[in-house]
Design brief:
With 103 residues, this protein is mainly alpha-helical. Helix content is 82%, strand content 0%.
Length: 103
């Protein structure tokens, strides 16, 4: 139980240290929903949903970009999503290492 508590503490402390980067990347996902809505002529809510589904690398396929520019923006959102996921995984790995060393 002590190891889990230590992991939790280190994980959230690490996330707190990189919060600015994570928030900036999340803001990029939201901001990129605007050109998608305009270029693909869809409601902003649908574009925002698409941006988060793409950014989280889920990709349901229920909304698909039709224009080359829309597809390019979707690729950029996917790269940003991979960066966010990578940062969270890196924080978790760091927390596991720290909690294993201290126990």
């Amino acid at each position: 139980m002590q190891m889990f508590v230590r992991f939790n503490k280190v994980f959230w402390r690490t996330i707190w240290h990189v919060r600015t980067v994570i928030l900036a990347l999340l803001a990029l996902v939201v901001v990129n929903a605007v050109p998608i809505a305009l270029i693909e002529k869809m409601p902003f809510g649908d574009a925002l949903y698409f941006a988060f589904v793409t950014g989280l690398t889920i990709g349901y396929g229920d909304i698909v970009m039709q224009t080359p520019v829309g597809r390019l923006i979707a690729l950029l959102i996917a790269v940003v999503g991979i960066l966010i996921s990578g940062m969270i995984v890196a924080a978790a790995v760091h927390a596991v290492r720290e909690s294993m060393e201290k126990s």
